[in-house]
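ok new one. same drill as before - C-alpha cells go in, u give me an amino acid for every spot. 291 of them this time. try not to just spam alanines like last time pls lmao
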C-alpha cells in the first residue's frame, strides 16, 4: 500500500509522533496504520530508553485537593517548550487526579498506578518520552489527608504549595499562607525543624565573614549567634514576616487564627537538579579541532 501524505497525517494525529517517524513507520509496515502504531511504540520505547539518562530539569508542578486529601507532584521535561505542550499538560492533569484518588505512600507506589489508558504512570511517562522526543518523568509526589487542606499553584506552573492546617483557619487565610510560602520559599516550618547540619554550615560561613577582632568572647559569640538566628528566621516559615501584613510574623498570624501547620510542601520545578549548561561555541570549536 502506498504511503500517502494523508496516511502520515492520520498516524501523526493518532500518536503525536514526528512526521518523519510516521513516514518510516508506514513504510516499514506497508501502510498499515495499526501495525505502524505498534512499530512506533516499539521503536519509540527503544529511543526513550536512550534518553533515560538525560537531565530533565524543566516541567510542571501541580497541587490539587478534594474534601479529604491533597497531593502535590512535579513532572519533568528537558525543555520549557515541551512543558507547555497540551498533551504534556493533559498527562500531568490525569496523573494528578489518579494519584489523588489513590492511597499511595511513595513515589514508587505512584509510578505503578494505572491511568485510563491501562498504562501505569511510569509506562505513560516512557511512552510520552518516545512520542514527544524528550525525557519525561514523575520526579516526586507528596500526599496528605486531613480536614483543613490548602493548595496553591503559581501562574507559571513552576511553583506549587500544599499545606495541612490544624484549627479553624478560613479557606481564604489558608490560601494566603500558601501564597506566602510560594513567594518566600521557607525551607522549614519552625526553628525546631532546622537540622544541626544547616546551623553548623551557616555558623561556619558567618564566622568566616564576620570580624569580631578585639571583642570580648561573650560579646563576639552573641554577635555570631544573633546573625545565625537571623538566618534561621529567614528560612523558617513561622518566623518570617507575613507578606500580607509585614507587621507580624506568620507564626503570630496563625496564633491569632487559633491554628497551626501540620505539613508543608513547596515544589519548585528543577530545584536541586544540576542543569547542564551547553556552550555552543565551545562545542563547535571542539568539533573543528577534531576534524
Amino acid at each position: 500500500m502506498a504511503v500517502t501524505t494523508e496516511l502520515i497525517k492520520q498516524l501523526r494525529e493518532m500518536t503525536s509522533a514526528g512526521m518523519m517517524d510516521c513516514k518510516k513507520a508506514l513504510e516499514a509496515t506497508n501502510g498499515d496504520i495499526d501495525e505502524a502504531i505498534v512499530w512506533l511504540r516499539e521503536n519509540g520505547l527503544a529511543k526513550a530508553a536512550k534518553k533515560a539518562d538525560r537531565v530533565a530539569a524543566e516541567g510542571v508542578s501541580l497541587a490539587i485537593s478534594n474534601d479529604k486529601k491533597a497531593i502535590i507532584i512535579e513532572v519533568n521535561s528537558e525543555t520549557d517548550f515541551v512543558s507547555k505542550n497540551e498533551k504534556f499538560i493533559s498527562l500531568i492533569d490525569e496523573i494528578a487526579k489518579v494519584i489523588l484518588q489513590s492511597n499511595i505512600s511513595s513515589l514508587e507506589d505512584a509510578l505503578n498506578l494505572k491511568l485510563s489508558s491501562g498504562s501505569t504512570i511510569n509506562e505513560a511517562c516512557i511512552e510520552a518520552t518516545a512520542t514527544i522526543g524528550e525525557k519525561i518523568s514523575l520526579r516526586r509526589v507528596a500526599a496528605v489527608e486531613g480536614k483543613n487542606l490548602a493548595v496553591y499553584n503559581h501562574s507559571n506552573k513552576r511553583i506549587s504549595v500544599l499545606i495541612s492546617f490544624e484549627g479553624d483557619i478560613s479557606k481564604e487565610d489558608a490560601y494566603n499562607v500558601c501564597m506566602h510560602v510560594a513567594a518566600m520559599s521557607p525551607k522549614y516550618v519552625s526553628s525546631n525543624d532546622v537540622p544541626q547540619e544547616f546551623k553548623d554550615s551557616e555558623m561556619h560561613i558567618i564566622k568566616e565573614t564576620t570580624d569580631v577582632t578585639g571583642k570580648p568572647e561573650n560579646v563576639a559569640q552573641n554577635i555570631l549567634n544573633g546573625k545565625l538566628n537571623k538566618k534561621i528566621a529567614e528560612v523558617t516559615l513561622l518566623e518570617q514576616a507575613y507578606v500580607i501584613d509585614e507587621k507580624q510574623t506568620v507564626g503570630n498570624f496563625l496564633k491569632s487564627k487559633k491554628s497551626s501547620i501540620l505539613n508543608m510542601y513547596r515544589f519548585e520545578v528543577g530545584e536541586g537538579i544540576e542543569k547542564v549548561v551547553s556552550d555552543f561555541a565551545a562545542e563547535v570549536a571542539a568539533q573543528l579541532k577534531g576534524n
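Residues 58-187+258-268 form a domain with the Tetrahydropterin Synthase; Chain A fold (CATH 3.30.479.20). and btw The chain has three domains: 5-50, 58-187+258-268, 196-234.
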